[in-house]
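Re: the request from the purification team.
They wanted to know what the chain is likely to look like in 3D before they choose a buffer screen. I agreed to run a prediction and write the result into the notebook, where they can find it.
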Amino acid sequence: MNHQQKDELTGAVRDALLHAVTHLEPSLMTRLDWMHRETMSATKVLGADDAKKARYEASLEVLEMIQENLAIADATGLPMCQDTGMVVAFVEMGSDVHFSMQEVGEALDNGIALAVRDGFFRNSVVSDPVFDRENTRTNLPAVVHWFPKESGGLTIRMMLKGFGSENCSALAMLNPTAGVETVLSTILDMVRKAGGKPCPPIVLGVGLGGTAERALLLSKKALLREVGSTNPDPRYARLEQQLFDSIQDLHIGPGGFGGPLTALAVAVEHEPTHIAGLPVGVSISCWADRKAVVQWGGAQ
């Protein structure tokens, strides 16, 4: 990788993150508009003495504040949320990539550091988890997962993962005899326990199978999908819809105030697992489900 190529990749990462910290993907904006309309309609039909009235009105106010934040971010270029998150990147390198992992990693780090500086990101990463907890002031290091692919170029998929929602991640190691209903109830219990802590409305990522760490990684991969996309396997697509509908029935609501709707989207990913287990991993994103993609060379 020559200096020009490194600078171009660095700039592409920077620009993608600056856009992600100020703009949500169109499909998520559509879901937020849907939730606002539905919550407003549900609120209007409640009588003044209905116990749900205050909760629904508070939920509606949260949704309106989210819309205001997004408008301000768009107009000013300032982050939509004060927690600008930790960068989690999934890097796919195809056969058309003639750069080393080290070169790509350096460009990725440089792009993140520039975005943090130029986009007024909050410094949110510490160098040691237990003892020093000294702020790195660059939001580095990022969490980077590397994957080979048979053909094509370089694809870097990134999310800005806030920790209000990250702290609500969960893992369950179910018995191999657990069926769909047990999987459903386990995930719903995780969401119920999280309550208002992940700053709902939420996007839910679920990983099924693999090992403990793979299930959680799959749940992160699920969050990288376009909001509203469905699993290509119709059985898992039905599971996504069942979870989406059942989460609404929890009545956690925007901000945790108890409104009629909680989930903006649910995505499930799965892979083979051992005969003796059924790992279930859950990752939750708050409404600020910020994602970015950089593609570089070759057929993607």
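For the purification team: Residues 7 and 98 are 16 Å apart (CA to CA).
Please add any questions underneath this entry.
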